[in-house]
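New to this. Please check both lines:
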Amino acid sequence: MTMPMTIGVLAQAAGVNVETVRYYQRRGLLDQPVRPLGGARRYDEAALRRLQFIRQCQTLGFTLEEVAELLTLDDGRHCVEASALAAHKLEDVRARLAQLRRIERVLAQLLAQCQRSRGLMRCPLIDALSAARSRSNGADLRQPGR
């Protein structure tokens, strides 16, 4: 058993800033222990594990709202619901990866056009980006030159 921790020690052990701990407390993700008369609040190992859980969830792309939902499912009886949340997150990640691959292809094509152009002409990259922005505020950059 370890000694109770101050907020600073807790934050350091979890690899976060003290303000992050306070923010999670304001969001209701982490309980704030009672302050003893004339003393500092003390956090236990459970608070550290919860803080580490929150950080791990964020590393995997879960929003704080999703983390809060996962925390409500942590009683050993909601594995199906937790799995559904994780499956939805995986779908989101895959969709973002597909979008990033499309962006990669477009940028590679635009860079190839830039490298082929020589002389005193407008930059094909800037022209394509300007045309896409004027069509739909930058959201329609699918293929260069279209």
